[in-house]
Design goal:
Strand content: 35-45%
CATH architecture: 2-Layer Sandwich
Strand order of the largest sheet: 1-2-3-5-4
Shape: elongated
Structural class: alpha+beta
CATH class: Alpha Beta
Number of helices: 2
Radius of gyration: 17 Å
Largest sheet: 5 strands, mixed
Helix content: 10-25%
CATH topology: STM4215-like
Distance between the termini: 16 Å
Order of helices and strands: HEEEHEE
């Protein structure tokens, strides 16, 4: 007899996270690669067991959210401000007093870290955001 399951990480977390961030920011959000002059790419990093219950389990999903802007020229402080504004917006979206959630699909989101990168050869700047969210899965 086949096992009945739902693809939690894709259907409940990644797809809904794309809608949440895309609805908040006017920047295209993808799940595969960057496109255009600026975009966000969301990728899963980990799916860890937190606790097991008689009727299911709680899991922690860690995501990478990368905002990339193609500047096509010299990188300056104004460009850093543009990139850090998006990173700060996402961090605020998941702050404890304003925690974005998608109904019952994920909750307890928190930005664990933000790393800034500049690629002077390609004229690009990036904010690499690590976000964790919690899910409940019924068995």
């Amino acid at each position: 007899m086949p096992v009945d399951y739902t693809n939690i990480i894709y259907d409940k977390v990644l797809s809904n996270m794309r809608k949440t961030i895309g609805g908040e920011l006017s920047i295209p959000v993808y799940m595969d690669s960057h496109k255009g002059s600026s975009s966000i790419v969301i990728s899963p990093l980990a799916d860890d067991l937190v606790e097991t219950f008689a009727s299911g389990q709680q899991r922690q999903v860690t995501l990478s959210i990368v905002y990339e802007v193609n500047l096509g020229g010299e990188i300056n402080i104004k460009n850093f401000k543009q990139v850090s504004n998006i990173a700060e917006h996402i961090k605020r979206l998941f702050a404890p007093d304003n925690n974005a959630r998608d109904n019952n699909d994920y909750f307890g989101g928190q930005v664990d870290s933000i790393e800034y990168q500049k690629d002077e050869e390609e004229g690009k700047m990036r904010a690499l955001i690590t976000l964790t969210v919690q899910t409940f899965e019924a068995q």
